[in-house]
Amino acid sequence: xxxxPDLPLWAAILTALLLxxxxxxxxxxxxxxxxxxxxxQRVHAPTLGSTLGAGGILVxxxxxxxxxEGRAVIHEVLIALFLTLTTPVTLMLLARAALYRxxxxxxxxVPKELx
Length: 115
What we know:
The chain has 115 residues and is mainly alpha-helical. The protein is 76% helix and 0% strand. The chain has one domain. The chain has helices at residues 9-35, 39-42, 44-69, 76-105. Helix 1 (9-35) runs antiparallel to helix 3 and helix 3 (44-69) packs antiparallel against helix 4. The longest helix has 30 residues, at 76-105. The N and C termini lie far apart (59 Å). The relative contact order is 0.12.
């Protein structure tokens, strides 16, 4: 952490803004998880919040370490790719499992199957 004072002011401000934006989006997704009533509504807010929030934080990390090292640091792109691919797949699997469970139990509030 001794390199932090070497970060130019413009990069520090931009990094801080990106971090705050990413953290705010993630917090909004978490609050949505608490406020929404049904499982099907709850599953969307944290999924979108975590994807977009992590994206902002990863862009801030790429910017900060690229400026400090004087070269493009892109290993965070692998993290972003992993999150972008796994979060929607997890959402889909959770929603399908919940739909299957609710349909087999005969819940009336579940959308009917399309033939």
